[in-house]
Structures
1.
Amino acid sequence: MVVRAAVAAAQVVVAVVSRALVVAKADLAVVAERVRDAGPAVDKAGLASANPMAAITIAIASGKGGTGKTTVAANLVLSVANAQYIDCDVEAPNGHLFLHPELGVREDVGVLIPHIDPALCTLCGDCADACEFNALALSRERVLVFPELCHACGVCSYVCPQAGAITEVSRTIGTLELGEVRNGIDGPVRFAQGTLNVGETGSVPLIKAVKQRAETDRVRILDAPAGTACPMVETVQDADYCLLVTEPTPFGLNDLELAVGVTRLLGVPCGVVLNRCDIGDEAVADYCRAEGIPVLMEIPFERTLAQAYAQGIPWVEADPSSRARFQTLYEAIQEAARG
Ligand code: SF4
Ligand code: SF4
């Protein structure tokens, strides 16, 4: 029993690692093809880089929602040459409301969950015991599977002693869409977004699938989910730089501190954009100064900006002179990210 448990534990580790990238088979094929075509240079996302100097990944995140994260991401991508916008906020993707992309590709994204053959299952219960997420339950007659609780880790398949009793089937959790934004600064901006199906609780596999569509010779702007939970971590962890958008309020400061803590744990350098900078207090600025975090841009609280936002018009289009500010922001990020 001890030996079997040890073997099972080793298999569990292999299974979890091998599931780190749970993507549709088509996605894996595309990534493999890109890696083959692009030569040996490999960036932090694990993808080959055709032009390492141009290939930078910038995650735009915020500790709390509603700070203007998508506004900054959308305007930045419209101000940078050769860029790609990747909406990783899959539970509420809204970059398309400002960028108005023409979408040409739509694919389902699935995760592998267990299917149990009652003819082969001996009702030993090992799979249910091994499942950390209570997605399996042993009844007197069969093993019940609760798909919404399954994290697609594959552990149950590895611990099952009956060959063929557990097979894995794909379950769709959301969609991936690809397209182009016509009004980029030097041509179309490439666009990718994921949309999690209503009722799904696990967004990380979909975020992984969307990130797999990052184009390695472009400036990649990742619009991260708000907060500091797993979806934010998944988005930010392999970025070259994380831009944290906040506002000068007590809530903004509290959640900024949490977000800075996450980026430091991940080893991703960060800077701050202070939105609605002329309201609130000085606490965020004081915190950034004390922590040595650069405030790279300040955005005032202006009615004209709010009106453009409400109409789905990016700031750089409502006020073209603002584009220079985002270009300066990008140059500062480049410099900071490359040390
Ligand atoms: S049911 Fe899902 S979460 Fe549970 S062990 Fe199997 S694959 Fe993992
Ligand atoms: S581990 Fe395999 S044989 Fe045992 S209850 Fe689960 S599916 Fe059935």
2.
Amino acid sequence: MPGLADESAILRPHKGRCAHCRSDIAVPATYAHGDFIKCGTCGMQHKVVRGEGVKLVIADATPLKEALRTNDAMVERLQDELRGARRSFGIGVNGLGIGVAYAIYLVAMKEHALDTQLATKAVMAMVMSGIVLELLNYFFLAKRQRVKRLQADIEEAQAQSDELEQKIRESSRF
Ligand SMILES: [Zn+2]
């Protein structure tokens, strides 16, 4: 009998989805439009929206907004840290100064002639010390890893912020 089947379908609890943790929430038929129902998994309070079927929207977005603020602050802090880590690259530029100092030393202390040989020696010193300093910075100080890790952390935190923003937007539509 199709009529009976339809009736039991109406009385059966509907399955809603938590707008926060995405787990299923059974919404009993006795819950009317505008009633509150809590997610059994994460405790988020929802409002029942009955229209075509049943929909659950977050009843109070305040905790989400707070989480978003905290998360945005974390993104900012991580970006600051990343800027700092990146700034300390380029230490190899100091090799330039070392090369010039070496040339001055050769001329002043060793009475080196101002010739192309001196220039070559100075350039060699610049390049070598520049490379050594950059390598020290890169590998020994593990700056590279740190920058990578920070970038990944920032990406993750930003994705989280985006998700929170979307949930807040969704909850304010009702
Ligand atoms: Zn939940």
